[in-house]
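Researcher: Here's the sequence for the chain we discussed earlier.
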Amino acid sequence: MADAALRLKSLFEQLLGTPVPVRIRAWDGSEAGPPDAPALVVRNRRALRRLLWKPGELGMARAWVAGDLDIEGDLYAALDAMSSLVWERGADARSLAQALRDPEVRSAARGLVKLAGLPLPPAPPPEEVRRSRAHLHTKRTDKRAISHHYDVGNDFYEIVLGPSMVYSCAYWESPDGTLEDAQRDKLELICRKLELTPGQRLLDVGCGWGSMAIHAAREHGVSVVGVTLSQEQAAYARKRVAEEGLTDKVEIRVQDYRDVTDGPYDAISSVGMAEHVGSARYLEYTRVLFALLRPGGRLLNHQIARRPWQDESAYDIDEFIDAYVFPDGELAPIGTTVTQLESAGFEVRDVEAIREHYALTLRRWVANLESEWRRAVGLVGAGRARVWRLYMAASALGFERNRIGVNQVLAVKTPEPGRSGMPLRARTWN
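Model: Thanks. This is the structure I predict for it:
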């Protein structure tokens, strides 16, 4: 067959009921579709089998990670064009089953099966996490999930994150600024919101590679305990702390936040960690942090948020993210987060939405990865590098299109009823 691309284009349009917005390049070298559009490269028939056996996001993700599908041209433009077909239209098994009631769609599906050849379903790529969701967010399963994501290798994270080694949304003064300056400004913003002063104790929950702990100790004179479940992060952070001469100020522990017992702390920072907690455990998380703070102490909770669904009971975990990126991770609407914090006893004093800042941050991370692609592949393998490129680029679009957001929530453990200890003009950090 010398016209596989034209046949694919026709079949996809019959199945989806809309023109395909990208150019298709098939395994036989043929092309079809808008000549100036990015190209969806279908390298082999196995890519079609993956889509047929698992329609929707997970099937496409498996084909991408395995290298059966690729994109040539502007990655962001291609993902944006296809998002309306895959993510927004709900192109999954359920919606496909409904569509197959249409005779024309059934005919197109049969044509796709014939074109693909349909032996047993291809095995998922080895990068995919396969497990039961029966026992979520125990200490053991959380440690395993964190290890999957963060113990990829510190050398790989150095490529993606750059010298700052901060894996959370930066705070940009200008889109033309440097990633390092924006990450420094984010750390300083958090310290100012917490109103850190010399001699105080700070607990940094999910301390990563130690950047927040080091900044707070060096710039604000506080003593810091940083906790992480990642052995690789802890080893890297301890080395950085020693190089900064801050071993008397900063302690890095491999410890679950639920096992921290040496409170009270004057302040707590939780930056990009709460996404791992899970809805069933979130109130426990807020209560643990509340108990670890002294009266009058402040919490800064920096967390990605999803948009609320009209029917929250219908909300489903993102299949690609769950299988390849953040096993067991869950996002909640900002209103839910605020409610849970206040249910634990906190008074929420400030919420700052910084959605656009994360889009800028992710685009810089993608650029870092692409600039050292060969080295990254050598460190973690082609499949995992492809996971990260897709995940970060798609997430950047998610923030830009307001499908997801990120918020800094400042909360206080009020020392007595009716008294917050906050100044009348609270935004003293501006």
